[in-house]
Design goal:
257 residues, alpha/beta, Rossmann fold, 6-stranded mixed beta sheet, 4-stranded antiparallel beta sheet, 8 helices, 30% strand, globular
C-alpha cells in the first residue's frame, strides 16, 4: 500500500511553517518502511480527490479567503472526505473547514462545511503565544488513544464555536485555543487545531494518530529526540518562559494611559 499525502495550497496557507506537518507524516511512514507519496498542490492546480491524507496550514486573511473559494469551487476535498480520507488542518485551515469565518474586512465568508463550527471576530485581544492543552485523546477505530498534553503556539484573531456534531480535541491549560476553554476540533476523520510548531514536530504521538486513521496500527519507532523537545516545550510553557514580550509601541501606549 502506498499512502498519498497532499499538502494543500502552501502558497496561500504557508505562513507559519505548517507545511512541515506533511513532511513529518511522510518521514514517519518511511521510517516504518511504508510506501508514501507526498504531493504539493498549489492554488492554481486541481486538487485530487483520491488521496489518503490532506493537510491545510495557517495563513493571513486574504489568502485564507482565496483558499476557501478555490476549495469550494472544486469540491475535491468534499469528495475525498465522503470517500473516507483524513483531513488535518491548522489555524486558518481549521477555520476554512467550518461553516463560516470572518474575512479581512470582518465580513462573514462561507467555509467548506466539513466541520460543524463557526469562527467569529470577537472583542478580545489577538491570541498570540504558547498554547498548551491538558491531556488529549482521539478516537481511532472505536477506541480512545491517549496523546497527553499537546504543545504548540497560536496566532489568531478569531474564536471558534463548535456545534453539536463536533468535539473539542482537548481542554486548554495555557493559552486561548478555540476561546471557550477548549482547543481544536475532531469530527469523524477531520481533525483541526490552532497549534502551530509544526505541531507534529512537537507531538509525535499526534502525528501517528493521524496516520493511524489511514494505515491502522503502527509499529513503534525511536522518538527520543522528539520527546525531549516536547518535554522542554511543555516545561517552558508552564514556566511562562515563552510568553511574548510587549513591543515598544505597546509600552508607549501603556504610558499614555
Amino acid at each position: 500500500m502506498s499512502v498519498r499525502i497532499v499538502s494543500l495550497f502552501p502558497d496561500l496557507l504557508g505562513t507559519y511553517g505548517d507545511g512541515g506537518n506533511a513532511v513529518i507524516l511522510a518521514q514517519r511512514l518511511r521510517w516504518r518502511d511504508i510506501d508514501c507519496e507526498l504531493l504539493t498542490v498549489s492554488a492554481d492546480e486541481t486538487v485530487p480527490d483520491s488521496a489518503d491524507i490532506y493537510l491545510l496550514g495557517g495563513g493571513e486573511d486574504g489568502p485564507q479567503s482565496a483558499a476557501a473559494q478555490r476549495l469550494n469551487q472544486q469540491r475535491s476535498l468534499h469528495r475525498a472526505v465522503e470517500n473516507g480520507a483524513t483531513v488535518f488542518a491548522v489555524c486558518a485551515g481549521m477555520q476554512i473547514l467550518g461553516e463560516s469565518f470572518p474575512d479581512m474586512h470582518g465580513k462573514t465568508s462561507p467555509g467548506l462545511g466539513l466541520l460543524d463550527c463557526q469562527t467569529l471576530r470577537v472583542e478580545k485581544p489577538r491570541a498570540v503565544g504558547e498554547l498548551l492543552t491538558k491531556a488529549a485523546d482521539i478516537s481511532l477505530a472505536g477506541r480512545n488513544v491517549a496523546l497527553g498534553p499537546l504543545s504548540g503556539f497560536e496566532n489568531h484573531a478569531g474564536r471558534t464555536r463548535l456545534g453539536s456534531a463536533a468535539s473539542p480535541l482537548a481542554a486548554v491549560e495555557i493559552g486561548e485555543g478555540n476561546g471557550d476553554g477548549y482547543e481544536g476540533i475532531v469530527q469523524g476523520n477531520v481533525v483541526a487545531t490552532y497549534l502551530h510548531g509544526p505541531v507534529f514536530a512537537r507531538n509525535p504521538d499526534f502525528a501517528d494518530a493521524i496516520l493511524s486513521m489511514t494505515v491502522g496500527e503502527l509499529s513503534p519507532i525511536d522518538d527520543e529526540e522528539s520527546l525531549l523537545l516536547r518535554a522542554v516545550r511543555i516545561d517552558a510553557a508552564r514556566r511562562h518562559e515563552l510568553t511574548p514580550k510587549p513591543t515598544l509601541r505597546q509600552r508607549l501606549q501603556w504610558r499614555k494611559k
